[in-house]
Amino acid sequence: MDTGRMKIEWVSRYMKLLNLLREKFSKEKPLAGLRIGISIHLEAKTAYLALTLSSLGAKVAITGSNPLSTQDDVAETLKNFGVEVHAKRTHDEKEYLKGLHKVLDYHPDLILDDGADLTVLAHTERKDALENLKGVSEETTTGVRRLRAHEKKGMLMVPVIAVNDSKMKFLLDNRYGTGQSTWDSIMRNTNVLIAGKNVVVSGYGWCGRGIALRAKGLGANVIVTEVDPVKAVEAVMDGFQVMRMDDASKIGDIFVTATGNRDVIRREHFLNMKDGAILANAGHFNVEVSMKELEELAVKKFHARSNVDGYVLPNGKTIFVIAEGRLVNLAAGDGHPIEIMDISFSLQVLSLLFLSKNHENLEKKVHLLPSEIDEEVARLKLKALDVEIDSLTEDQRRYMEGWQ
Amino acid sequence: MDTGRMKIEWVSRYMKLLNLLREKFSKEKPLAGLRIGISIHLEAKTAYLALTLSSLGAKVAITGSNPLSTQDDVAETLKNFGVEVHAKRTHDEKEYLKGLHKVLDYHPDLILDDGADLTVLAHTERKDALENLKGVSEETTTGVRRLRAHEKKGMLMVPVIAVNDSKMKFLLDNRYGTGQSTWDSIMRNTNVLIAGKNVVVSGYGWCGRGIALRAKGLGANVIVTEVDPVKAVEAVMDGFQVMRMDDASKIGDIFVTATGNRDVIRREHFLNMKDGAILANAGHFNVEVSMKELEELAVKKFHARSNVDGYVLPNGKTIFVIAEGRLVNLAAGDGHPIEIMDISFSLQVLSLLFLSKNHENLEKKVHLLPSEIDEEVARLKLKALDVEIDSLTEDQRRYMEGWQ
Amino acid sequence: MDTGRMKIEWVSRYMKLLNLLREKFSKEKPLAGLRIGISIHLEAKTAYLALTLSSLGAKVAITGSNPLSTQDDVAETLKNFGVEVHAKRTHDEKEYLKGLHKVLDYHPDLILDDGADLTVLAHTERKDALENLKGVSEETTTGVRRLRAHEKKGMLMVPVIAVNDSKMKFLLDNRYGTGQSTWDSIMRNTNVLIAGKNVVVSGYGWCGRGIALRAKGLGANVIVTEVDPVKAVEAVMDGFQVMRMDDASKIGDIFVTATGNRDVIRREHFLNMKDGAILANAGHFNVEVSMKELEELAVKKFHARSNVDGYVLPNGKTIFVIAEGRLVNLAAGDGHPIEIMDISFSLQVLSLLFLSKNHENLEKKVHLLPSEIDEEVARLKLKALDVEIDSLTEDQRRYMEGWQ
Amino acid sequence: MDTGRMKIEWVSRYMKLLNLLREKFSKEKPLAGLRIGISIHLEAKTAYLALTLSSLGAKVAITGSNPLSTQDDVAETLKNFGVEVHAKRTHDEKEYLKGLHKVLDYHPDLILDDGADLTVLAHTERKDALENLKGVSEETTTGVRRLRAHEKKGMLMVPVIAVNDSKMKFLLDNRYGTGQSTWDSIMRNTNVLIAGKNVVVSGYGWCGRGIALRAKGLGANVIVTEVDPVKAVEAVMDGFQVMRMDDASKIGDIFVTATGNRDVIRREHFLNMKDGAILANAGHFNVEVSMKELEELAVKKFHARSNVDGYVLPNGKTIFVIAEGRLVNLAAGDGHPIEIMDISFSLQVLSLLFLSKNHENLEKKVHLLPSEIDEEVARLKLKALDVEIDSLTEDQRRYMEGWQ
Q: From the candidates C233, C379, C386, C400, which should be mutated to test the interface with D, based on the most D CB atoms within 10 A?
């Protein structure tokens, strides 16, 4: 059986917004003649995005944004549909880098990036790729942060759309998507009970609060660690315990990092932990749990369960890390739920359309998507949900604009 | 017994941030020589704010921001402490307006406003008051919206600090404050069970989501109405039913408005409602439930319970309105919980200090409080809560600023 | 204005089950010729129960079950409707006892008891009252426990219906009723924020879990203390922290007792508490917080707010007790929400009808209400809620009875 | 790699109660000389139970309680440890039956049953197996119901312990275990978003309320269907919508059955459903969703995803069923979380010990485990959780026993 195709067909049923956009645009083919280079976790949902871009007329080359997250059967099916694919689950860092180069060799007009690896490469080693490049649409918090740093240094050479900063992205994807998929992944990979556990969530940004909310919804006692005092107060007001990692590391049963920062859990914390503690990372890069320090510290490492490694510490305790500290919902799961990606990818499609039409008038900066596009996607979603909402009456509109 | 004094003493115990600021500044008296005019719901917590400003050296004149919300015993005590008070619970609209004028007669250097009535008056009928006025600190969403409209028309004559738009205000006050106090008020004034009720919340801004969250926490089945599609999608994702008021009005048991708009519940909706439906408004002005249309429609009106009026409709059904559609948590309750006001008022104190020092360098616009002040208040709150949080290591700080 | 009448009319609107029973039985008058003696917290809802029993033909004499919970205006109105009333808010213990005697002087055929004071009195000092007594219907956990102890010692002289042990009572009243009304009372009497507070709930029976659930719903971090290991495990699994009172007393901001036991919070715990800690009791008797030890310990006691007393401890800290440690939702609030009492009182009405018909065939024991009566009340409630449910098909009924 | 062994070692780390029992009893070997026959879902956790019984001295023969739930690698490992195993994932109904017979051929002294298939067989076709049989310990609601029906007809030939009816079983397993594992399974097998979905839960017993609670915790709008009016009222009070399946089937996105009954979702409901609706069963037997009617009705059936089949209906809509309507958490997941089974299996071990000592004095009835055993397991669990609880003082103990 063609499992790649089966997987793509499955997700296509629940990607109702992409389907509405295909319906609307497939005759017109507004992306005809454009090459789109994509770096993204390659699985069924992103495959359907690539196919949607094809159906709108684009030529697409794709590579992963993380070797472990590529699903090979899906990649194969995508090739059969005429997409250029440069990704494989077994790829190591070097081959991953090669995949990025291959996509740049394609000289894309537009880049759809997830973490900004492709765009950064085009701005450093592969400046040749900038020649044809008209714009970039970036998916993640991390990628946006990197490209903003670029912009600050005056190094950004194309307009970038920070899709991540659209309301329909950061309000939904990071909260409801990460919230669910992180716990889906932890549960399926450990089979431990969440109810009654002390769950330590590091970071109370949109991802962190999604993870904390769902942990609470699964019956856990949730502890939050933060460095931002405002977010810390919010976490307290949401009913969570807030403390330093020095203290939390002593009582946590499960730890989930979502800070966007490095070494959030490190040597001194590993040594505090209870026997059997489970660690997972929900941030983009595998630096939040300091795997380097853990490898150095451990007297023994063993494969404990599919996707889970055990580390025996000098104090005799064993702690477990899921997916080597990589993004847990992708490296050891199916990534975000379908409907979440459907929304994000609808923003991506509209962002690429927007770039294709407006790139000449856009400064070489990181831009937000116009709020009308946010609203358009929200209305598509309500339509897909079969939900009707109120409209302002004329009197109400005037009242909202008035001041007396 | 001096009940006003007892009330103020009670709240002073739980206003730990104001107490920390008094400790810090009461020797220095940084507001010495300044006249501050205040329009605010006059009860124990605002009284303690006024006394705190006095203890920092200011001369204070105060009036209500809504007649029904004045507590006369507290007003009396305040007078005894040397504050000029122009407010009484029995005041009608005319006397309320007179109170505002009296405060402007005082020619304040700074205004602390709640809904912008005082500031708007100074910009229209009472331009004489602008002469000495150095700046305004505004508390509410509604007030900020009014003053922004002023600014847009080029009519704003002093710098305004939108305290409402500080994170420590809108993230906490509107959500946790309104959330709790609205239900406290509805419960104490009706004694009906919330669990199992269909609760309709209009508006899913910060206030609305606080109200919805607490209704859910009390066991209700919550229905949200919205005009903004993005917020509507969020409400769905938070597990609420979303529908038009035309549909919600048929099944709701309790209705709470928090939109900032007028006529959200109107003639056609009243006629849809079930016998015994209960209506409350949590928005600043008493225009969200169209009381005018309800009065016209009703064949009989009667006093049903303290703070509750019954309206018999032509269809024979009776519906109930709490506090005549005025801000329910203030007009029929004790307003926000003490600790919430403590946070907001710490922002106010620091905002007035900021204005007193920087007014000459500030444009005649609506400004945000500098984020350092937000952080300062957050750190004070964590101190009061006895909560410690992490700090970035040097490596982490560099990582967050980097891009590679 | 006749405030007693207004209050009763208000509750009568939301007591839809009693209204359905009045409709059904008011012609038949099945309680005609019977004297019913009642000891119960006398306020609007119990008044409407008394009036409902009258409308079914009974003659009713009523006294309080707790002096502080009597509402005098309601008592007056009840007299005007022909009910014999022996209760006043200002009554002390001695006058309270006199009220009980007066009701027994009435020689009731049936007793409706709340805490079993009336029934215990009839079995001890007032054995004369047993002559005419045909049965007792008891409302509370505490009362049922006392009468079961009586039964064990062979001292029970009449059949008792433990209405408290009916599913529609203990599943609803103790959980949803106590849950809401306890927090309603604490919020209105203190105006403190619940979100972010450490709330300590003692006892994880039905009352305790209702209180804990609502505290969580209001944003608190909830800590449970228990003596029963099974309930303690449940509390952990529900996401609460569980610890000994020795530990909880050091970190709690608000304490609520619901154990049915005495001295749950005592000397050593008071001394552990933070300055400003707030204590409330949700159990039937005012023995859960050891007021005696607190009075002895305190160096000063003062009236801090309506219904709240402050106690200054030798360590300089002040702690506050609501309603002198009496049942907080009644002594400092309006008791259970109307709809909860409507359900309980429908059980009471049907229990008294059941006793009146079957007392001769019932052993002198504590009995449960037949489960059909539970079901009948549940169906009435669904009718009042306008909720329809499924019925078993014939095949399904057979399947449930089969074993193969 | 020996994956079976790896799986068993993983679960053994989190089965702390079984480990505490092994510690306590492994020297004494209290089950020495006894043959135990087991029918149970054969995977790592049950394997560790079997090994625990071996370590207490018993000889063990085991078969599945459901073909699809057997994990072959675990079965192999078990054989290597000397357990007699008669189960294979590929077994059909006939071979499953043969497995049961093989276990009875072993002439067990004690049976540990899960659904009562083994015990019913011994009471019907295989009465020879009754000769040596001293008692049965039954795990599930369904099994207990079947054996009670047996008892009623006077057909029960051995004492049975209804482990399912122990508090530490039904309060935890059915609620927290089924609650988590059902959603774990649905999420991993579909990758759809739960937040914002209309989730229909059929049955509001302990399983159903666990499923509903977790669905709410994952952000769903939960609809409950019930036939019992008392449970229906509870569901309303818990904030859920309650309606008939006729109505729910029109709006549900995901359906989960947990009634213990048959044909809860049937022909007329399938035809009401939305395109893309997903069905799962969390009840013991695969009869709750009428697969027979669905197979008859569908114009096409196809394999849609691992463990998911699609059915195209005559109306053109497609609906999906997970795991062919079998117990979803076992047939398409890893079953209950480890810690839940650890508790249930500790009860089982203690139940078998209790039977081995007391079988001669026990009537041939369905018995509850003595409540001391419940308490013992609860105390073990608190020890494993490192949670301390209060004890009654002498005064408190006397008070609880008193009545005055």
A: C233
Pairing of strands B308-312, B318-322: antiparallel
Do D276 and A14 lie within an 8 Å CB cutoff?
A: yes
Q: What tens digit of pLDDT does each residue of D55-70 get?
A: 999 999 999 987 777 8
**Are B304 and C11 inside 8 Å of each other by CB?**
no
Contact D396 C243 (CB under 8 A): no
Q: For D127-215, where are the E strands, in sequence order?
A: 135-138, 160-162, 198-202
Q: Which residues of A touch B233 (CB under 8 A)?
A: 168, 172, 378, 381-382, 385
DSSP D79-98: HHTT-EEE--TT--HHHHHH
CA distance B113 to B129: 14
Q: Which chains touch B (3 or more CB pairs under 8 A)?
A: A, C, D
Query: Which of the residues B193, B209, B320, B330 would you substitute to probe the C interface, choosing the one with the greatest number of C C-beta atoms within 10 Å?
Result: B193
Q: Six-digit token pair at B370? A: 């500098």
Strand partners, B309: B303, B321
- Which chains pack against C, by 3+ Cβ pairs within 8 A? A, B, D
Determine the Cα–Cα distance for residues A304 and A308; give it in Å rounded to an integer.
6
User: Hey, is the C-beta of D293 within 8 angstroms of any chain B C-beta?
Assistant: no
CB contact under 8 A, C378 and D233: yes
Comparing alpha-carbon positions, the chain B residue that sits nearest to D216 is B239
Structure tokens at B257: 């408005």
Chain A CB contacts of C196 under 8 Å are 236-239
Strands (DSSP E) found in B220-295 = 221-225, 241-242, 254-257, 278-281
Per-residue burial over A110-119, b = 16 or more CB atoms within 10 Å of its CB, e = otherwise: bbbbbbbbbb
Q: pLDDT digits over A223-276, tens only? A: 999 999 999 999 999 999 999 999 999 999 999 999 999 999 999 999 999 999
Whether chain B has a CB inside 8 Å of the CB on C276: the answer is yes
Q: What is the dihedral of CA B46, B51, B53, B54, to 10 degrees?
A: 150
The answer to whether the Cα torsion of B170, B176, B181, B186 is positive or negative is: positive
Tens-level pLDDT at each residue, chain C (404 residues): 689 999 999 999 999 999 999 999 989 999 999 999 999 989 899 999 999 999 999 999 999 987 777 889 999 999 999 999 999 888 888 999 999 999 999 999 999 999 999 999 999 999 999 999 999 999 988 899 899 999 999 999 999 999 989 999 989 988 999 999 999 999 999 999 999 999 999 999 999 999 999 999 999 999 999 999 999 999 999 999 999 999 999 999 999 999 999 999 999 999 999 999 999 999 988 999 999 999 999 999 999 999 999 999 999 999 999 999 999 998 899 889 999 999 999 999 999 999 999 999 999 999 999 999 999 999 999 999 999 999 999 999 999 887 54
DSSP B154-183: T---S-EEEGGGSHHHHTTIIIIIHHHHHH
Q: Which residues does chain D have within 8 Å of residue C284's beta carbon, measured at their own beta carbons?
A: none
Taking an 8 Å cut-off on Cβ atoms, the answer to whether B220 and D239 are in contact is yes
Beta strand B300-305 with D221-225: parallel, antiparallel or unpaired?
unpaired
The CA distance from B286 to B300, in Å, is: 21
| Disruptive mutation site among A182, A193, A274, A345 for chain D (greatest number of D CBs within 10 Å) | A193
Q: State the first-to-last Cα distance of chain C, in angstroms, to the nearest integer.
A: 68
The secondary structure of residue A126, as a DSSP letter, is T
Strand arrangement, sheet containing A198-202? A241-242, A221-225, A198-202, A254-257, A278-281, A318-322, A308-312, A300-305
CA distances from D143 to B302, C270, D124 (A): 60, 51, 15
pTM: 0.94
B227 contacts on A by Cβ (under 8 Å): 389-392
Look up residue A275 and give its two tokens. Answer: 């026997």
